[in-house]
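Session log. Operator J.P. requested a structure for one protein chain; no other inputs attached. Running the standard single-chain path with C-alpha coordinate output.
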Amino acid sequence: SATNIIVGCALAGLAIGVAANSPPLLATLVVSLMLGIVYSMELPFMRWKRSPVLAAGCILVVRALAVQLGFFYHMQNAIGSTQLIVTPAIVFTVGFMLLFSIVIALFKDVPDAKGDTRAGVRTLTVRLGADRVFWACIWIMTLAYTGAVVYSLTAATSIGAAAASSIGSVAAGGISSIGSFASGATGTASAASSIGSVVAALLASLSLGTQGMVGARTLACVAGHILMAVLLWRKALQVNLESQKEITDCYMFVWKLFYAEYLLIPLLL
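Structure written below.
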Protein backbone atom coordinates (compact mmCIF):
# COMPACT_ATOMS: atom_id res chain seq x y z
CA SER A 1 0.00 0.00 0.00
CA ALA A 2 0.98 3.66 -0.20
CA THR A 3 1.55 3.76 3.56
CA ASN A 4 3.96 0.84 3.42
CA ILE A 5 5.90 2.47 0.59
CA ILE A 6 6.18 5.76 2.49
CA VAL A 7 7.26 4.05 5.73
CA GLY A 8 9.76 1.90 3.83
CA CYS A 9 11.29 4.92 2.08
CA ALA A 10 11.52 6.84 5.37
CA LEU A 11 13.27 3.95 7.13
CA ALA A 12 15.59 3.41 4.15
CA GLY A 13 16.57 7.08 4.22
CA LEU A 14 17.35 6.98 7.93
CA ALA A 15 19.30 3.74 7.43
CA ILE A 16 21.48 5.47 4.83
CA GLY A 17 22.17 8.28 7.30
CA VAL A 18 23.16 5.79 10.01
CA ALA A 19 25.28 3.70 7.63
CA ALA A 20 27.12 6.79 6.41
CA ASN A 21 28.15 7.56 10.01
CA SER A 22 27.53 11.22 9.26
CA PRO A 23 25.78 13.27 11.97
CA PRO A 24 25.02 16.15 9.54
CA LEU A 25 23.40 13.81 7.02
CA LEU A 26 21.39 11.96 9.67
CA ALA A 27 20.25 15.22 11.28
CA THR A 28 19.12 16.54 7.88
CA LEU A 29 17.15 13.36 7.20
CA VAL A 30 15.52 13.41 10.65
CA VAL A 31 14.54 17.09 10.46
CA SER A 32 13.14 16.64 6.95
CA LEU A 33 11.18 13.55 8.04
CA MET A 34 9.74 15.21 11.15
CA LEU A 35 8.63 18.31 9.26
CA GLY A 36 7.23 16.11 6.49
CA ILE A 37 5.15 14.25 9.07
CA VAL A 38 3.66 17.34 10.71
CA TYR A 39 3.10 18.85 7.26
CA SER A 40 1.09 15.95 5.87
CA MET A 41 -0.34 13.65 8.54
CA GLU A 42 -3.99 13.95 9.57
CA LEU A 43 -3.42 13.96 13.35
CA PRO A 44 -4.11 16.48 16.12
CA PHE A 45 -1.92 19.60 15.84
CA MET A 46 -0.55 18.34 12.51
CA ARG A 47 -1.53 18.64 8.85
CA TRP A 48 0.33 21.96 8.73
CA LYS A 49 -0.24 22.16 4.98
CA ARG A 50 -3.71 23.54 5.78
CA SER A 51 -2.13 26.67 7.24
CA PRO A 52 -0.47 28.95 4.66
CA VAL A 53 2.04 30.23 7.24
CA LEU A 54 2.99 26.83 8.70
CA ALA A 55 3.12 25.23 5.25
CA ALA A 56 5.43 27.95 3.96
CA GLY A 57 7.57 27.61 7.09
CA CYS A 58 8.01 23.86 6.56
CA ILE A 59 8.98 24.32 2.93
CA LEU A 60 11.46 27.11 3.70
CA VAL A 61 13.14 25.29 6.60
CA VAL A 62 13.56 22.01 4.71
CA ARG A 63 14.33 23.22 1.19
CA ALA A 64 16.34 26.37 1.91
CA LEU A 65 18.08 25.58 5.21
CA ALA A 66 18.14 21.95 6.34
CA VAL A 67 18.94 20.36 2.99
CA GLN A 68 21.46 22.97 1.82
CA LEU A 69 23.41 23.36 5.08
CA GLY A 70 23.04 19.73 6.15
CA PHE A 71 24.29 18.23 2.89
CA PHE A 72 27.06 20.83 2.60
CA TYR A 73 28.25 20.06 6.12
CA HIS A 74 27.99 16.36 5.29
CA MET A 75 30.35 16.85 2.33
CA GLN A 76 32.77 18.84 4.48
CA ASN A 77 32.61 16.17 7.14
CA ALA A 78 33.38 13.51 4.52
CA ILE A 79 36.64 15.24 3.60
CA GLY A 80 37.75 15.55 7.21
CA SER A 81 36.42 18.92 8.39
CA THR A 82 35.05 18.91 11.93
CA GLN A 83 33.45 22.35 11.77
CA LEU A 84 31.03 23.95 9.35
CA ILE A 85 33.02 26.36 7.21
CA VAL A 86 30.62 28.91 5.78
CA THR A 87 31.70 29.93 2.29
CA PRO A 88 30.29 32.63 0.00
CA ALA A 89 29.03 29.89 -2.29
CA ILE A 90 26.90 28.18 0.37
CA VAL A 91 25.55 31.55 1.55
CA PHE A 92 24.49 32.31 -2.01
CA THR A 93 23.01 28.82 -2.45
CA VAL A 94 20.90 29.19 0.70
CA GLY A 95 19.68 32.59 -0.50
CA PHE A 96 18.90 31.21 -3.96
CA MET A 97 16.96 28.26 -2.56
CA LEU A 98 15.19 30.57 -0.13
CA LEU A 99 13.74 32.48 -3.09
CA PHE A 100 12.87 29.22 -4.85
CA SER A 101 11.19 27.90 -1.69
CA ILE A 102 9.12 31.06 -1.39
CA VAL A 103 7.95 30.49 -4.96
CA ILE A 104 6.96 26.90 -4.21
CA ALA A 105 5.17 27.93 -1.01
CA LEU A 106 3.17 30.58 -2.90
CA PHE A 107 2.69 28.74 -6.19
CA LYS A 108 1.24 25.59 -4.62
CA ASP A 109 -1.95 27.49 -3.74
CA VAL A 110 -2.50 29.06 -7.17
CA PRO A 111 -4.12 25.98 -8.81
CA ASP A 112 -6.43 25.62 -5.77
CA ALA A 113 -7.62 29.23 -5.75
CA LYS A 114 -11.28 28.46 -6.52
CA GLY A 115 -11.50 25.55 -4.09
CA ASP A 116 -9.81 27.53 -1.32
CA THR A 117 -12.21 30.42 -1.91
CA ARG A 118 -15.22 28.12 -1.54
CA ALA A 119 -13.72 26.50 1.56
CA GLY A 120 -12.91 29.85 3.16
CA VAL A 121 -9.14 29.21 3.22
CA ARG A 122 -7.53 32.64 3.11
CA THR A 123 -4.33 31.92 1.20
CA LEU A 124 -2.35 34.75 -0.35
CA THR A 125 -3.71 33.65 -3.73
CA VAL A 126 -7.28 34.07 -2.48
CA ARG A 127 -6.49 37.49 -1.04
CA LEU A 128 -4.52 38.94 -3.95
CA GLY A 129 -5.76 36.92 -6.91
CA ALA A 130 -4.22 34.02 -8.81
CA ASP A 131 -2.78 36.17 -11.59
CA ARG A 132 -0.84 38.45 -9.22
CA VAL A 133 0.64 35.57 -7.23
CA PHE A 134 1.43 33.62 -10.40
CA TRP A 135 3.43 36.47 -11.93
CA ALA A 136 5.05 37.31 -8.60
CA CYS A 137 6.38 33.75 -8.53
CA ILE A 138 7.72 34.03 -12.08
CA TRP A 139 9.51 37.29 -11.28
CA ILE A 140 10.96 35.94 -8.01
CA MET A 141 12.41 32.99 -9.93
CA THR A 142 13.76 35.37 -12.56
CA LEU A 143 15.43 37.34 -9.76
CA ALA A 144 16.98 34.12 -8.44
CA TYR A 145 18.31 33.13 -11.87
CA THR A 146 19.66 36.64 -12.47
CA GLY A 147 21.40 36.47 -9.10
CA ALA A 148 22.98 33.14 -10.04
CA VAL A 149 24.31 34.60 -13.28
CA VAL A 150 25.68 37.69 -11.52
CA TYR A 151 27.27 35.57 -8.78
CA SER A 152 28.90 33.32 -11.38
CA LEU A 153 30.23 36.29 -13.33
CA THR A 154 31.59 37.84 -10.14
CA ALA A 155 33.45 34.62 -9.38
CA ALA A 156 34.69 34.56 -12.97
CA THR A 157 36.68 37.78 -12.48
CA SER A 158 39.34 35.74 -10.69
CA ILE A 159 39.96 33.28 -13.54
CA GLY A 160 41.51 35.56 -16.11
CA ALA A 161 40.29 38.20 -18.52
CA ALA A 162 39.89 35.92 -21.55
CA ALA A 163 37.68 33.35 -19.83
CA ALA A 164 35.67 36.01 -18.03
CA SER A 165 35.13 37.88 -21.30
CA SER A 166 33.82 34.73 -23.01
CA ILE A 167 31.44 34.04 -20.14
CA GLY A 168 30.26 37.64 -20.02
CA SER A 169 29.51 37.65 -23.76
CA VAL A 170 27.44 34.48 -23.47
CA ALA A 171 25.54 35.86 -20.46
CA ALA A 172 24.71 39.14 -22.20
CA GLY A 173 23.57 37.40 -25.36
CA GLY A 174 21.54 34.81 -23.50
CA ILE A 175 19.74 37.32 -21.28
CA SER A 176 18.87 39.52 -24.27
CA SER A 177 17.32 36.55 -26.07
CA ILE A 178 14.91 35.54 -23.28
CA GLY A 179 12.04 37.75 -24.40
CA SER A 180 12.30 36.88 -28.09
CA PHE A 181 12.68 33.14 -27.38
CA ALA A 182 9.54 33.15 -25.28
CA SER A 183 7.59 34.76 -28.11
CA GLY A 184 8.16 32.08 -30.76
CA ALA A 185 10.21 31.03 -33.75
CA THR A 186 12.44 34.13 -33.93
CA GLY A 187 13.39 33.53 -30.34
CA THR A 188 14.16 29.90 -31.12
CA ALA A 189 16.69 31.00 -33.71
CA SER A 190 18.12 33.47 -31.21
CA ALA A 191 18.42 30.73 -28.62
CA ALA A 192 20.16 28.47 -31.16
CA SER A 193 22.62 31.28 -31.84
CA SER A 194 23.23 31.66 -28.11
CA ILE A 195 23.87 27.92 -27.80
CA GLY A 196 26.44 28.23 -30.57
CA SER A 197 28.07 31.06 -28.63
CA VAL A 198 28.13 28.88 -25.51
CA VAL A 199 29.92 26.08 -27.37
CA ALA A 200 32.43 28.50 -28.90
CA ALA A 201 33.13 30.17 -25.54
CA LEU A 202 33.42 26.77 -23.86
CA LEU A 203 36.09 25.67 -26.36
CA ALA A 204 37.90 28.99 -25.94
CA SER A 205 37.84 28.63 -22.16
CA LEU A 206 39.20 25.07 -22.28
CA SER A 207 42.15 26.30 -24.32
CA LEU A 208 43.23 28.43 -21.35
CA GLY A 209 44.41 25.46 -19.28
CA THR A 210 43.65 25.39 -15.55
CA GLN A 211 41.99 28.78 -15.62
CA GLY A 212 39.97 27.57 -18.58
CA MET A 213 38.65 24.59 -16.67
CA VAL A 214 37.36 26.92 -13.96
CA GLY A 215 36.05 29.20 -16.69
CA ALA A 216 34.25 26.31 -18.36
CA ARG A 217 32.56 25.41 -15.07
CA THR A 218 31.45 29.00 -14.58
CA LEU A 219 30.31 29.21 -18.19
CA ALA A 220 28.20 26.08 -17.75
CA CYS A 221 26.61 27.61 -14.64
CA VAL A 222 25.81 30.87 -16.43
CA ALA A 223 24.46 29.13 -19.51
CA GLY A 224 22.43 26.68 -17.42
CA HIS A 225 20.68 29.41 -15.44
CA ILE A 226 19.96 31.46 -18.55
CA LEU A 227 18.48 28.38 -20.21
CA MET A 228 16.24 27.66 -17.22
CA ALA A 229 15.07 31.30 -17.14
CA VAL A 230 14.23 31.08 -20.84
CA LEU A 231 12.28 27.84 -20.36
CA LEU A 232 10.46 29.30 -17.36
CA TRP A 233 9.26 32.37 -19.26
CA ARG A 234 8.24 30.41 -22.31
CA LYS A 235 6.17 28.10 -20.11
CA ALA A 236 4.65 30.97 -18.13
CA LEU A 237 3.60 32.95 -21.18
CA GLN A 238 1.73 29.93 -22.52
CA VAL A 239 -0.39 29.49 -19.38
CA ASN A 240 -4.09 30.34 -19.43
CA LEU A 241 -4.70 31.58 -15.89
CA GLU A 242 -8.34 30.53 -16.15
CA SER A 243 -7.31 26.90 -16.60
CA GLN A 244 -6.52 24.97 -13.42
CA LYS A 245 -4.90 22.24 -15.50
CA GLU A 246 -2.45 24.63 -17.18
CA ILE A 247 -1.58 26.33 -13.89
CA THR A 248 -0.96 22.95 -12.26
CA ASP A 249 1.18 21.90 -15.20
CA CYS A 250 3.27 25.06 -14.80
CA TYR A 251 3.58 24.43 -11.05
CA MET A 252 4.91 20.92 -11.72
CA PHE A 253 7.32 22.42 -14.26
CA VAL A 254 8.65 24.69 -11.51
CA TRP A 255 9.40 21.56 -9.47
CA LYS A 256 11.36 20.17 -12.43
CA LEU A 257 13.39 23.38 -12.54
CA PHE A 258 13.92 23.09 -8.79
CA TYR A 259 15.45 19.64 -9.05
CA ALA A 260 17.40 20.59 -12.18
CA GLU A 261 19.08 23.24 -10.04
CA TYR A 262 20.88 20.50 -8.14
CA LEU A 263 22.83 19.80 -11.34
CA LEU A 264 24.15 23.38 -11.27
CA ILE A 265 24.69 23.95 -7.54
CA PRO A 266 27.90 21.85 -7.44
CA LEU A 267 29.36 24.22 -10.05
CA LEU A 268 29.00 27.08 -7.56
CA LEU A 269 30.69 25.36 -4.61
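Operator note: The two ends are 40 Å apart (CA to CA).
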